[in-house]
Amino acid sequence: MALLEIRNVSRRFGDFLAVDNVSLEVGAGEFFTLVGPSGCGKTTLLRMIAGFDQPDTGQIVLEGKNLEGTPPEARNVHTVFQSYALFPHMTVEQNIAFPLRMAKTADDQIKPRVAEALEDVRLADKGKRYPHELSGGQRQRVALARALVNRPKLLLLDEPLAALDAKLKEQMQLELIELQREVGVTFIYVTHDQGEALALSHRIAVMNHGIIEQLDEPSKVYGFPKNRFVADFIGTCNLWEGTVTSAGERDFVLDLDGIGTARAIPNTTTKAMPQPGQRGCLTLRPEKLRIAADLAPLPEENSAAGKVHDFLYLGDVTIYIVNLDQGARIEAMLPNAASGRTRFFEVGDPVKIAWRVDAGHFIDG
């Protein structure tokens, strides 16, 4: 049985339908992430799980118990907010002890449990300090320790890393993964950051306009998007419109707008072979493309030619924006792996691109 079940839950604010008949299950010990743009319903859903808001229809069930009418403090669920919500007049130890005191935990049990929580988040030497004496990452860890000190069944995290700089955010992502593995508490994580969702999660639910567009493992959401919204929202993706011109036993041929003829294989998830005349979209991640001044395409590759329109140097990789001869614009990625200074293509350089027949993912419609 799933630890948490969301059954046909909807929530409306006036004329705005924030959550639209959502159903999902979260297993014990899972790191589950809700990701989507602002206003997609992910925070509203999190607030209903926490008990800060109530669904108009549907049920939220934790360990087989319907939570309808159960106040937040009576649910075995804790929430970590983006603002951390630490008490500035309390020390780190006092902040962490607060939920234990609210639960009327015996005094002789509080000190060892606070010490254990501090060890979990590697802040054993910071217990006597106040929040203003800590870095942003340390305050985040105190908020986590406070939420975990009485071992809830479920920990809800609402954009907890949004206020951190890029380097600290990456460090905290690694610490969150390790912490979740160590304590074994189920995490439900809300973020608008696609990279964060891919890096942290066992499974991802991509939300848009109050519904779940796709729910799957990160690699499948990234590699096999269910529709154009997911393909475009999760990471960087080339989206090429086209019409199927012929279909064989293993692959089919597309006439791609602004690119020309290309071969592809059926959608890996549905296995259905597109038929001639069918419109659709071929999705292709930039790292799946080869780009060179000159290249001979392999038998299982498609190819096209164009000129570099611009490029974006990102340190470990460079993204090239290429205007193809037939009108389309694509993005291709090259790793900057060579020793010494990497030689870049310049704007205006002629290039050729190629991609494997099975590198693209065809979306119907």
Describe this structure in words.
Helix 2 crosses helix 3 (107-120) and helix 3 crosses helix 4. The protein folds into 2 domains: 4-231, P-loop containing nucleotide triphosphate hydrolases (Rossmann fold, 3-Layer(aba) Sandwich), CATH 3.40.50.300; 236-364, Beta Barrel (OB fold (Dihydrolipoamide Acetyltransferase, E2P)). It is an alpha+beta fold and 365 residues long. It starts with a strand and ends with a strand. The longest helix has 18 residues, at 166-183. The mean pLDDT is 91. It is globular. The chain has 8 helices and 20 strands. The strands form 4 sheets. A 6-stranded mixed beta sheet has the order 6-7-8-3-9-10, sandwiched between helices. A 5-stranded antiparallel beta sheet has the order 13-12-11-14-20. It has a 5-stranded antiparallel beta sheet with strand order 15-19-16-17-18, with no helix packed on it.
Helix and strand element order = EEEHEEEHHHEHEHEEHHEEEEEEEEEE
Q: Give the C-level CATH assignment of the largest domain.
A: Alpha Beta
Q: Specify the structural class.
A: alpha+beta
Please describe the biggest sheet, giving its number of strands, its sense, and whether it closes into a barrel: 6 strands, mixed
For this structure, the CATH topology of the largest domain is: Rossmann fold
Average pLDDT over all residues: 91
CATH homology superfamily name of the largest domain: P-loop containing nucleotide triphosphate hydrolases
> How many alpha or pi helices?
8
Beta-strand fraction estimate: 35-45%
Oligomer: single chain
**Helix content range:** 10-25%
Shape: globular
What is the count of distinct domains? 2
